[in-house]
């Protein structure tokens, strides 16, 4: 808590970006607009050509941000409340577009005055400091901020309050204003970055090893190629996850579980998340290029599919499920391209039906949670709770068809030649029938809280099924 600062004849001036909210309204508007229309980059470029105030106004108009769901800094909010309770006046002074600043102030109900960026005046740095001194006089205000652009404001303030400042930056602020108070220590971004990359979702990328397992090509060269493919897919997939989270900021903040994600909660600033997307994508493409242009092409196709999914396909019923199934199967195709192993049509058919089933389970789980919360439709999705019975039927039917494909494959000469005791593989069919049925039933009862594949590695029964499948496969080869 800050020390006692008299409120008499002084105004508490509060910055918005990085101070009142853990984020940046320009980036909030950008991604909100991106989620609405593909025209956003062109509108943004046109606005930027007319100056930064025009850019802020254009983005604010294109993608209205839900100010009620923004990640507000509770410490700063408490300070503003305390100042008002002590009889002091407060002002929201920000470089954010003026109309957006008014919306934030109206939502919080804590400010006597609001000043933001208007046409021809980007209220930042020296411009903000000049406005503060002109309106309240030198030493007539206390300023709360978080960035180096706020140094001129602190220089003209009677007292300074910083938010999340590093020790080095605190020393810089102390040089321009000796009466300084610091709110909250700087938070490490390492944990939020790793969490936002969703490393647990990298388990899906183990599918690149499926061609090696199916073909029994356990050479060091094949394994290393598979490992490089796994890393490349992980990096590119993480870029896709971050992109999806940026586009889903609004819906995620309204979700009972997703609101705790690093970007939605503000633990990972939106500008940092924005910068991470091209960085991870470039790293993934660099690794994929080492495996040849064929693999790199598959990676590019995968990323553009994920981008199309994030931008608009996820809002199209059934199409979204088909795309998710395709993205799973594409990992298997990539494994074949990386290792030079020719893929069996049986393997591709099985994967399409099997992963269509799991993708449908994912939608089924979302609808079950909506039903439990008394909601009728999913925000940003093409489904309603009344579709729940149909999604369950689709999941079961597609899953059972995948087992049928497996059964037909076991009767082919290819299997008879490749395995010493192929009859053991029939046990895999029984296990898959059990597992698919159990997953759909668990989801129907509200027990599926994550992606089905991620759920499988934490569910004891699923792990037992997986171990038995491995044992049967090994027995079919060795016995």
Number of domains in the coordinates? Answer: 2
Mean pLDDT: 88
Low-confidence stretches: none
CATH architecture of the largest domain: Orthogonal Bundle
Give the CATH topology of the largest domain. Answer: Farnesyl Diphosphate Synthase
Terminal CA distance: 70 Å
What series of H and E elements makes up the topology?
Answer: EHHHHEHEHEHEHEHHHHHHHHHHHHHH
CATH class categorisation of the largest domain = Mainly Alpha
Describe the structure using short key phrases:
479 residues; Farnesyl Diphosphate Synthase; 6-stranded parallel sheet; 22 helices
Q: What does this molecule look like?
A:
- There is one protein chain.
- The protein has about 475 residues and is an alpha/beta fold.
- The protein folds into two domains: about 10-185, Rossmann fold, CATH 3.40.50.1000; about 190-479, Farnesyl Diphosphate Synthase (Orthogonal Bundle), CATH 1.10.600.
- Helix content is about 60%, strand content about 5%.
- The chain has a six-stranded parallel β-sheet with strand order 3-2-1-4-5-6, with helices on both faces.
- Helix 5 (about 100-110) links the parallel strand 2 and strand 3 (about 115).
- Helix 1 (about 25-35) crosses helix 3 and helix 15 (about 295-310) runs antiparallel to helix 16.
């Amino acid at each position: 808590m800050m020390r006692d600062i008299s409120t008499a004849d002084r105004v508490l001036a509060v910055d918005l970006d990085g101070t009142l909210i853990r984020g940046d309204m320009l980036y909030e508007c950008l991604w909100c607009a991106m989620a609405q229309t593909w025209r956003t980059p062109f509108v943004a470029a046109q606005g930027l050509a007319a100056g930064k105030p025009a850019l802020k106004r254009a983005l604010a108009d294109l993608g209205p941000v839900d100010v009620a769901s923004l990640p507000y800094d509770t410490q700063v909010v408490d300070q503003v409340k305390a100042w008002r309770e002590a009889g002091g006046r407060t002002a929201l002074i920000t470089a954010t577009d003026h109309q957006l600043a008014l919306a934030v102030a109206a939502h919080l109900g804590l400010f006597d005055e609001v000043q933001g960026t208007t046409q021809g005046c980007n209220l930042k740095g020296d411009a903000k400091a000049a406005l503060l001194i002109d309106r309240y006089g030198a030493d007539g205000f206390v300023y709360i901020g978080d960035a180096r652009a706020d140094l001129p404001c602190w220089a003209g303030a009677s007292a300074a309050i910083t938010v999340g400042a590093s020790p080095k930056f605190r020393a810089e602020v102390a040089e321009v204003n000796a009466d300084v108070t610091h709110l909250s220590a700087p938070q490490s971004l390492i944990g939020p970055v790793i969490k936002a990359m969703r490393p647990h979702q990298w388990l899906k990328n183990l599918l690149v090893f499926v061609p090696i397992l199916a073909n029994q090509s356990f050479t060091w060269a094949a394994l290393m190629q598979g490992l490089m493919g796994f890393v490349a897919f992980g990096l590119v997939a993480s870029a896709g996850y971050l992109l999806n989270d940026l586009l889903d900021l609004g819906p995620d903040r309204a979700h009972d579980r997703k609101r705790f994600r690093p970007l939605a909660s503000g633990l990972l600033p939106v500008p940092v998340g924005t910068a991470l997307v091209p960085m991870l994508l470039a790293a993934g493409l660099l690794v994929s290029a080492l495996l040849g242009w064929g693999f790199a092409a598959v990676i590019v196709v995968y990323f553009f599919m994920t981008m199309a999914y994030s931008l608009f396909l996820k809002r199209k019923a059934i199409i979204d499920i088909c795309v998710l199934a395709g993205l799973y199967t594409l990992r298997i195709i990539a494994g074949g391209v990386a290792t030079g192993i020719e893929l069996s049509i049986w393997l591709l058919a099985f994967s399409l039906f099997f992963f269509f089933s799991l993708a449908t389970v994912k939608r089924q789980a979302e609808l079950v949670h909506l039903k439990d919360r008394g909601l009728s439709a999913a925000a940003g999705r093409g489904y309603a709770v009344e579709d729940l019975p149909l999604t369950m039927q689709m999941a079961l039917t597609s899953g059972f068809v995948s087992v049928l494909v497996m059964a037909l494959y076991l009767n082919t000469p290819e299997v008879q030649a490749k395995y010493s005791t192929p009859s053991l593989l029939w046990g895999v069919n029984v296990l898959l029938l059990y597992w698919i049925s159990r997953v759909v039933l668990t989801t129907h009862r509200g027990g599926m809280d994550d992606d089905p594949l991620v759920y499988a590695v934490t569910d004891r029964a699923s792990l037992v099924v997986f171990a038995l499948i491995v044992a049967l496969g090994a027995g079919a080869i060795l016995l």
